[in-house]
């Protein structure tokens, strides 16, 4: 498959679905006609759905893992940037009808690779010399990896307080990493976009709109779940700005639109209780929201501002926006580890949301977004040395509850 | 597929191929009849090859990623332990006929998950209460993950000098981690095996034999390469004890034996130049070897002792045992990062070996074993804060060679 396989036709406003724009250039400042100084509305990508070959979404498991997002090229923006075998992640059955979609199996070990295959493809499509991204984590490292693969420069505006392991990660792919205080990131990002030929692959607007092609990449999670499991009752998603939540929702909505699925799952946003702008906006009946964020170790989803995409996903799917405490996420993280899956704390928010919510009659999918190696706790030595004798070993085993 | 699909029939000595044993119990002390006080010989698993359905290895890409090693159950020991969607990793084309088999996409982000699915299955098969492993890295964490998934205990005899991030990793899955000096590890491991009902999933013998079922898991790398690419000219493999090298070799040898492939690839062992017991043994015409290891950052493959498996793989395939310096591995690591793949230093040994060796007429596969997150360098802050003004950003961009 090549970029030429894409059936994308244009961009449509989420602020008013009757407003559409050409596919190029990607509207990285959101919908210019509906956005206000208070609320920015994203655009999404439109396709000629009537030309989709229904074999594309058959249950046959066609397409090998190595093919990455290319398998779904007709329902994605043109994939002009080379891939890294992103996507195709396993759905791990943890019992009780619960399945974990383990996104840590991606090229940079998080779901963000699905987004950045699409955003860096946009940068290639507009002929940019590089990309710029504001991120202190998975988003930035993934952008750096796909930019390197495409032969583009990458500038990362990182937070000065990022964990050291994340700093190593961001630097690994040859990006120019600029640690700056939070407040300076977006003004500097806008300047970098305006003064250099750098395509922005993270958000630029007052409420979150992100890159119009990015969430499209997340639709492939829905396609993969569908080909393996059918339509689950519910999907629980760790939620920061709501791009992942929306992308998974849109994928299922498309399956129904294409007549392949009879129904859609309920989408559950799982935000840290320390913040939760989406839950707050929904409670207040607003179209998006901003909220102060208290202390939390779930640094990947501790967002103070929501995006309109999350509202759309929860409302249209008949879902809910839940908040989960750090303690609940730690408990879910332990449960995942007990099944052999070591997830970043934020990644466990999906399972934490499910455990707090209750049971379902049919299968439920919890998306686990990233690897435990991104956790803040990584690198603090935990194991104490043991006396290297049999007695020393025995006494340690007994201390840890091992039946001796 | 279930454990019942396995066509495994018994264990055969690598010391004398005419000697065979029943499949159970797994001979974790190597071949009792051919091993001496100086050299231990492993056993391998035998199958009723004539009963293999040739569809199993068709190029159709049958079997989804989520199915893990189960796809290949007939040619593996009984998979009694539950899987985690291990294997099915992408083959990334980096140009010039070179493909990288990226094993960092496994459940614990290294190739060891293929081995441990099989070794922990052996522990389940013998009804052990748990497993014990001597490791300060990928092998131990992977064993801990599969043991947790199977509901078994896991004791890890780690090195007191392991990197802190690896310590977090080993502890993540609920294992009992016992850091002890190198010399104490194997005596204590033998005691744990003898006195408790713990199945050993790493080596117990004087030269390396490892677990007889472990290398079988690595055969699936050959099967996956074959279904996607056919038979490459050569495979370059980061080599410590030679289990991975042997497993990949055996997989290709089986494909030829089954009449599915016309030939086999040349197998290249890539050891750190600071040691290199396999290269030394081959030079000296010995059947295995022991050698002092100097300083190297490739801690995952800095072995002082070789195993007979590596000798078999290099000799039977017409391959070679190469050594690569840390500088060559760093250069290969940078090359991989420039393609969007961040590998642990040891993981880059395969590509380093190829780059030092020269070109081939046909496709070549370099196995990249693990993620950059396991590197010793992780966690040392690299990025200096930048003055958060446009002038500050400009001056940093210029300092890093960015065209402004």
Strands of the largest sheet of chain A, in order across it? 4-5-13-10-11-12
The quaternary organization reads as homodimer
Q: CA-to-CA gap between the ends of chain A?
A: 58 Å
CATH arch. level architecture of the domain at 1-107 and 208-377 in chain A: 3-Layer(aba) Sandwich
Structural descriptors:
homodimer; 404 residues; alpha/beta; Rossmann fold; six-stranded mixed beta sheet; four-stranded parallel beta sheet; 13 strands; 16% strand
Task: Give an overview of the whole structure.
The structure is a homodimer of 404-residue chains. With 404 residues, chain A is α/β, with parallel strands linked by helices. Chain A has a domain at 1-107 and 208-377: 3-Layer(aba) Sandwich (Rossmann fold). The first copy, chain A, has eleven helices and 13 strands. Chain A has helices at 112-125, 138-150, 164-171, 182-195, 214-229, 243-257, 277-284, 308-317, 326-338, 349-357, 390-399; strands at residues 8-13, 20-22, 43-47, 91-93, 98-102, 130-134, 153-159, 176-180, 198-200, 234-238, 266-272, 320-324, 364-368. A six-stranded mixed beta sheet of chain A has the order 4-5-13-10-11-12, with helices on both faces. In chain A, helix 5 (214-229) crosses helix 6 (243-257), helix 6 (243-257) packs across helix 8 (308-317) and helix 9 crosses helix 10. Residues 61-65 of chain A have low confidence and may be disordered. Chains A, B: Pfam families: PALP. Chains A, B: InterPro entries: Ser/Thr_Dehydratase, TrpB-like_PALP, TrpB-like_PALP_sf. Chains A, B: This is Pyridoxal-phosphate dependent enzyme. Chains A, B: Keywords: Lyase, Pyridoxal phosphate.
């Amino acid at each position: 498959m090549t970029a030429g396989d894409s059936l994308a036709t244009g961009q449509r406003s989420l602020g008013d679905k009757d407003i559409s724009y050409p596919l190029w250039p990607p509207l990285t400042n959101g919908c210019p006609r509906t956005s206000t100084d208070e609320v920015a509305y994203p655009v999404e990508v439109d396709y000629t759905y009537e030309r989709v070959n229904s074999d594309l979404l058959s249950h046959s498991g066609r397409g090998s893992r190595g093919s990455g997002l290319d398998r779904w090229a007709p329902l994605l923006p043109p994939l002009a940037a080379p891939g890294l075998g992103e996507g195709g992640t396993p759905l791990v059955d943890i019992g009780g009808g619960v399945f974990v979609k383990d996104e840590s199996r991606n090229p940079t070990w998080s779901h963000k690779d699905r987004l950045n295959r699409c955003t860096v493809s946009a940068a290639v499509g507009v002929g940019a010399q590089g990309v710029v991204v504001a991120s202190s984590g998975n988003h930035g490292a993934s952008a750096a990896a796909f930019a390197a693969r495409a032969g583009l420069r990458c500038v990362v505006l990182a937070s000065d307080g990022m964990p050291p392991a994340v700093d190593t990660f961001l630097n690994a792919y040859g990006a120019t990493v600029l640690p700056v205080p939070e407040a300076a990131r977006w003004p500097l990002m806008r300047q970098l976009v305006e003064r250099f030929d750098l395509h922005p692959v993270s958000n630029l607007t007052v409420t979150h709109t992100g890159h119009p092609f990015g969430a499209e990449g997340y639709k492939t999670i829905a396609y993969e779940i569908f080909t393996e499991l059918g339509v689950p009752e519910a999907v629980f998603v760790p939620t920061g700005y709501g791009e992942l939540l929306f992308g998974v929702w849109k994928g299922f909505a498309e399956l129904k639109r294409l007549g392949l699925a009879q129904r859609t799952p309920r989408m559950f946003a799982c935000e840290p209780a320390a913040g939760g702008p989406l839950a707050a906006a929904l409670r207040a009946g607003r179209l998006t929201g901003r909220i102060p964020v208290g202390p939390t170790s779930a640094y990947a989803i501790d967002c103070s501002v929501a995006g309109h995409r999350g509202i759309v996903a929860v409302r249209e799917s008949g879902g809910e926006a839940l908040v989960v405490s750090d303690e609940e996420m730690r408990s879910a993280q332990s449960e995942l580890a007990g099944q052999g899956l070591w997830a970043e704390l934020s990644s466990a928010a999906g399972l934490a949301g499910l455990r707090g919510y209750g049971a379902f009659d049919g299968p439920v999918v919890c998306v686990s977004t990233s690897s435990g190696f991104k956790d803040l706790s990584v690198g603090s030595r935990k194991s104490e040395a043991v006396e290297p004798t049999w007695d020393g070993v025995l006494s340690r085993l007994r201390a840890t509850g091992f039946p001796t």
